[in-house]
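Good morning C.,

I know you're traveling, so I'll keep this short. The sequence:
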Amino acid sequence: MNGSIVERFAIVALACAAALSGCATSEPTVSTRGMPGQLESIHAATFTNNEAIFWVSSNGCTKKDDLIPIVSLQNGQAVITLRRIDEDKCRQDLEQGVELKWSFQELGLTPGAPVSVNNPYQLPRS
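The tokens, ready to paste straight into the viewer:
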């Protein structure tokens, strides 16, 4: 992984930790009962005007299709719950994980909509 990606990840992770510290809980704020797959711990999440970006753990094979973002509404605000539907069985430890992106259009959200994350945060392996 080159230095610029690691630096970008570190900056985004710190910004997200500061900005979303109120959202980081040990228990999801939206019920995950009946959702497919397993609740995925995330390293970081950030949102642009029209894109949701997550960093998750990977053993070398994690791809976007292995996870599913489920959008729920809570008090009129979108809440994204990221669920892993396919296990990453590879053996290459990617310490910083992988970056996965979904457009707001893919998520059924309007550009600029307020969004929060329902997943627990976990520091990347180092």
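Safe travels,
E.
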